Amino acid sequence: MQRRLANVNIWTVAAIAIIAALFLPNLTIVTGLFTPSNDNWAHMKEFVLWSFVTNSLILVVATAASTILIGLSLAWLIAQYQFPFRRFLKWALILPLSIPPFIGAYTYHGIVNYTGVIQTTLRERFGMELNPAHFDIMNLPGAIFIYTVFLYPYVYTITQVFLSQQSASLIESTRLLGKGPWRTFFQVVVPISRISIIAGASLVILEVLNDYGVVKYYGIQTFTTAIFQSWFGLGDIETSIKLAASLMGFVIVILLIEKILRGRRQYSYSSTKVRPLPLIKLTGWKAFAAAGYGFSILALGFFIPVIQLIDWTVLTFGTIPLDEFMSYIRNSVFVAGFSAAAIIVFALIVGNFARLVQGKLAKMLPKLTVLGYSIPGAVIAVAVVTAFVALDEFLAPLYQLAGLNTTLVLSVSIILLITAYIIRFFAIGYSSIETGYDKIGTDFQDASRLLGAGLTRTFFKVDMPMMKGAIVSGFILVFIDVLKEIPLTLILRPFNFDTLSTKAFQYASDEKIMEASQASLLIVGISALAIIVFYKFLEKELD
């Protein structure tokens, strides 16, 4: 009994320490609200703060609406109808997630600008001289288009999985009542899919608020760009903290609205005999229109930008020294791999703690760790820097004893960046691990303990082999997100430390968009491959 209690205590102490380390740095942002205001903050609050709010709100609302329209329509098309290339489109429509929006932003700008393929073709082959202003996408509508075509898979994936597993009796009942396909869609499909639609749209909104690359490249003033400007342009960390606190408040309001929209209305099966939706075969022009719609969206979100990136890569191949390019790959793989591995290890500890320890507190504490994903990267960067600077000041006497001439050690190291990654993306890894724990249950663990094995031995000998699928899928998802991440890396990377994403962003910002294609194409290729592997794994699990 004492041995088992000791094992529980070890898991409890480790889990609580991880939860505190992931949650407490974000509290430093809250304290910024109570610090005295300086001239920069007073100027921003009086003259430009409202423009940050307005632009952010327009981007959020318009992108959410457009991604819901596209994602839901595609999900219903795939879940309900049979048409040519449906099986291919079912998984291929997720591929736009492999392209970070900032890569899509500069790629589309290169395609439609004066020297781009569209205007060049119209001038040289058709003799058409058009006003270049008509092709300008470096504005709010252009940013909304970019976010929509690369983020709609969040709504599509969640809603499509839900609709594919929905009971056929619900839809068949509406047809027996004489309702046509349009009335069935709006009066039945949309209401029963509300929770999945809102879940997907919420992820889209959080991605838009977190993004820095698109709005910076297109010159749109938002909270994220303002945080960068006040920090790096003005050297004013106090104003950055206040802007970060304002953005955090903005996010909290959005999450509350999401909670209200979800409401308490639920749709559950009235029978245990649940049949999936039978596919309706489309013929003629309807089949052509369905396939054409799917391929049009896929072309905008994947094929067109990838073809352009390949073309630019061929034209500029060799312009970046190989050893320099390899250093970007090594840095990217290192931080993404190490962060993903650390997140999975921490998630296994926290998830096992939630499973072993009974009580509401043990169930509630792990939920604090997932808040990081709802907080934009720029806010987390400010929080982590503030916390690490305070930690360095606390450890300053030890640094002096060690013979160091500086008090800034941890706050300028790679540890700072990896810590921020862990806080930001822990929710992704934890969700996968939590699902894995729920799937294996506790029966095998109980049997192992009855045979005399302790909790720790049971974890490594019984739980871990059964958790391989959850561990691999969680690692892949975190690896992809870290590989594509921009705001955290730009702010927190050590001196002369570049990754594929930061270098691509720097080249694009310097108007060297062709040179940016090489790093971008590698990011897209790795991410696309990982997404395909993950989706096939998910599809197998659902079947």
TrEMBL record:
Its main location: membrane. The keyword Cytoplasm does not apply. PROSITE patterns: ABC_TM1. GO terms for biological process: transmembrane transport. It comes from the Bacteria. It holds the Pfam family BPD_transp_1. The chain crosses the membrane at residues 12-35, 47-79, 91-111, 144-163, 184-206, 241-261, 282-308, 328-350, 370-391, 403-423, 470-492, 519-538. Belongs to the binding-protein-dependent transport system permease family. This is Iron(III) ABC transporter permease. It comes from Planococcus antarcticus DSM 14505.
